[in-house]
Each structure stands twice: as structure tokens, then as C-alpha cells.
Design goal:
Immunoglobulin-like; 4-stranded antiparallel β-sheet; single chain; alpha+beta
Length: 437
């Protein structure tokens, strides 16, 4: 799911001389499946003003997700990869005009999909009952169900705030997709779970300052490291969790009034997510050992040895780096990002080894099919020989043979009766001569 990117130039490039202001607001309509994005144009001058309106819609929307543009034209920006509404409006002095863009609510969890994911989790667990992986499967099932429950509860908490729900939908999109994938991923169910309970907790200091000489209401954005997800935040000190579409990062914010020159600090507690989990490394090692053992007696042995050496080097570098204590949180995060790159490279090499194993299996299956085909070919040859020896005659040929056979039988019969008749006459004459004597 792509992040929602509001066009900053809609506000920042507005010239004060025009005294025309555009406001965006998003509200839920009475129809649960729809939401409305409002554009309000205000002419605060004493003159008639004409202004061109151009506002981008959330990039998740397709053409059939926009139901009504309230008279504005709808077009697609291929560079921004998003639809936008535009038009020209003439505003009378002090006039305010509102445009309501009605669209499909794509930022609500699909309850049917949630139930299907729960079903897949249970089915995956049931398949491992009575096996060596049963105890591990129980842990994996509970972890997945807890992760899914957390996302569902977060949406329910902000059901009435569409803007917050949009932010949360984007913030949890990857997590939700990962849960869906893991629910049916055999490798996930048979691998050791990543340990999160023993993680350290880091504290980030967030500072807010009103540098003006008068009281002001501020709402600054405090961006979090890109690896942080909402579930990693232990204590936000009352600050709201939001999502920035431009930077694709979470940030904390709070609207509050500060006196002139007033300063405030917030202690934000975050789980240490900047370590490659040792269990994840062990899983890679185990996959490497099993795959190499199967590849060793094959023609891919040398390639497998090369990959094993590469994987071993990456993992050793990660383990050595993580044993060293960083001086501060920034160094710790920097070191993790290097380790994460090494981990991804090692994982890619493991997958390459598994692809080699798949090639071996395909070759084996191909050889089996070849043997079967050879046997079929031999049988075919025998069948052709048999067919040539015991060839079934065509209908015309069959009748010729039958008629010829009948003529032969008839000739033989006539000949037989002729010979028998002659013999019978001679025997009769001989009998008569004997009587005369």
C-alpha cells in the first residue's frame, strides 16, 4: 500500500496577496464504505478573485474508487502516481466555497480477510500437531494472533477518526501483510521465533521550544528512525503516532500552547530493534547445513561450498559487530544497518543454495520422466513389431481373403466328390462283373 502524500505546495506556495486559503478535511459519511475529502476555498479579500484548484487524492485510489468530484475534473498524474481534482473557481469578496470529494474507504480492515488469516493460522498449527514442531507451533500461533489482535485493536481505537485511521493503515500495512504471509509459510512455522522479550529499551529525548516572544500553539513533527513501528513504542508520553507519506516514516506529534521562550522535553521509550536476532542467525545456519548436506553428493558441490563460505563470513561479521558496545544510540543504529545489509546478503545466498537444491530435484524428476519415456518408447517399438506381424486387414482385403478361401474350399469339395464318384463307379462295375461270373 502506497503512502498518502498531500501536496505541500497547496499551502506553502500560496501567495498572501491573493488572500485565498484552501483547507483539506476528511470525514466519514453516513455510508460506512465511503469517506469525503473536503476542499474549502476562502476569499478573505474585498475583491472578486479567481483561483485554480488542484488537489491530489490519496494514491491508493483507483479510478472506480472516486464516486463524486462535486463538479471538479478528475485526472491522473503519471509522475505522482495519483489522481487529482482540478478546476477554476471565482470567489466573491469574503466568499467561502466547499467542494466534497466522495471516495471509497480503503483504509478499513477487511473483516473477512482477518477471519481468513485466523483460519489459516489455526490450520497451519493443526498440521504440526503430533510432530516434533508442535511446541514451537504453539508459540508461533500465539505470536501471530497477538500481532493481528494489536492491529485490529488499533483500528477500533481510532474508528471515528478517518485521518488517524489512514495513518495507521499505512503504518501497519507491511506488518499486516507479513502476518498474512507467515500464517501459511511453512518455513516460518518450523523456524525458531525471533526473541523480543529480552530486548533493551532506549530513550529518545524529544524537545519542543517556542522561540517567539509571545505564546504560540505548536504542533511539531518528531520523526522516529525508519526501523521503528508502532508496536515498538513503549511510552510516547502522550504524543500521537502519525505517518508521513513523503518520508515514509512514523513521527510523534502533539498540539500544545507554549508560553514565550518556553521549552519542553519528552522521554520517549522505544524497544531496541537495532539488533539482528541471534535466533534468526541460527535459522540461517541450520538452513545452510541442511541444504549443503543434500547438495554435497551432487554436481553443485563446489557452488555450494562457495556459498557456504560466503554465508559463514557474513554471519561471523554480524556476530563480531554485535558483541561490541556502541558509544551512543546513533552508532548503535548505524552498526545495525550495516549488520542488516550483511544479514540480507547471507539470506540471499541461503536462498540461492536452496534454488540449487530445487534444480537438483528438477533434474531428478526430469531423469525419472526420461526413464519412463524410454520404457514407453521400447513398448511402442514392440507394439509396432506386433502390429506389423499381426496386422489387421482392411475391410476390402478381408473380404477378398474370405471369398478366395471359399473358392478354395469349393474347389477342394468338387475335386473330392469327383474323385469319390469315379471310385464309386469303378467299384460298381467290378461288383457287377463278379456277379456275372
Amino acid at each position: 500500500m502506497k503512502p498518502f502524500r498531500y501536496k505541500k505546495r497547496s499551502f506553502s506556495t500560496l501567495k498572501a496577496s491573493l488572500f485565498i486559503v484552501f483547507f483539506l478535511f476528511i470525514t466519514a459519511t453516513s455510508v460506512l464504505a465511503d469517506i469525503t475529502m473536503g476542499i474549502v476555498a476562502v476569499n478573505a479579500t474585498d475583491e472578486i478573485k479567481t483561483k485554480k484548484i488542484k488537489e491530489y487524492l490519496p494514491p491508493e485510489l483507483a479510478l472506480d474508487d472516486v464516486f463524486d468530484t462535486d463538479g471538479l475534473d478528475l485526472e491522473y498524474d503519471i509522475n505522482e502516481e495519483a489522481y487529482f481534482v482540478h478546476g477554476e473557481v471565482e470567489l466573491q469578496p469574503s466568499e467561502t466555497r466547499k467542494f466534497s470529494i466522495r471516495m471509497r474507504d480503503l483504509w478499513r480492515l477487511d473483516q473477512e480477510e482477518i477471519e481468513e488469516i485466523r483460519k489459516q493460522i489455526e490450520e497451519s498449527f493443526q498440521r504440526l500437531q503430533g510432530t516434533d514442531h508442535e511446541e514451537l507451533a504453539k508459540v508461533k500461533r500465539d505470536i501471530l494472533l497477538d500481532r493481528l489482535k494489536f492491529i485490529v485493536e488499533q483500528e477500533a481505537e481510532n474508528a471515528g477518526d478517518v485521518a488517524k485511521r489512514m495513518d495507521q493503515s499505512r503504518a501497519y500495512a507491511k506488518e499486516f501483510e507479513q502476518i498474512r504471509t507467515d500464517s501459511i509459510n511453512v518455513k516460518y512455522w518450523r523456524s525458531q521465533p525471533v526473541n523480543t522479550e529480552d530486548r533493551d529499551v532506549f530513550t529518545f529525548v524529544v524537545k519542543v521550544e517556542n522561540a517567539a516572544d509571545e505564546e504560540r500553539e505548536l504542533e511539531p513533527k518528531h520523526f522516529l528512525p525508519s526501523e521503528v513501528r508502532p508496536e515498538h513504542l513503549v511510552d510516547t508520553q502522550g504524543l500521537s503516532i502519525r505517518y508521513d507519506g513523503f518520508k515514509k516514516q512514523l513521527y510523534l506529534t502533539k498540539k500544545e500552547a507554549l508560553q514565550a521562550k518556553e521549552k519542553k522535553e519528552y522521554q520517549i521509550s522505544v524497544l531496541d530493534v537495532w539488533n539482528v536476532d541471534p535466533i534468526a542467525l541460527e535459522n540461517l545456519k541450520e538452513r545452510t547445513r541442511k541444504t549443503y548436506k543434500l547438495l554435497e553428493p551432487t554436481e553443485y558441490k563446489e557452488s555450494a561450498q562457495y556459498l557456504v563460505a560466503s554465508i559463514k563470513g557474513y554471519i561471523e561479521n554480524i556476530e563480531a559487530a554485535q558483541q561490541q558496545k556502541a558509544e551512543n544510540i546513533k552508532e548503535h543504529i548505524s552498526g545495525y544497518r550495516v549488520n542488516k545489509e550483511n544479514y540480507d546478503l547471507a539470506k540471499k545466498d541461503v536462498e540461492t543454495m536452496e534454488n540449487l537444491l530445487e534444480a537438483v530435484r528438477e533434474n531428478l524428476e526430469r531423469s525419472k520422466v526420461k526413464n519412463v519415456l524410454q520404457k514407453i518408447t521400447k513398448l511402442k517399438s514392440v507394439a509396432e513389431i506386433s502390429k506389423s506381424v499381426f496386422k489387421k486387414p482392411k475391410p476390402n482385403t478381408a473380404w477378398k481373403i474370405i471369398v478366395t478361401f471359399l473358392f478354395i474350399v469349393l474347389g477342394y469339395t468338387i475335386l473330392h466328390f469327383s474323385i469319390w464318384g469315379k471310385k464309386s463307379s469303378k467299384m460298381k462295375e467290378k461288383s457287377e462283373n463278379n456277379e456275372e461270373d
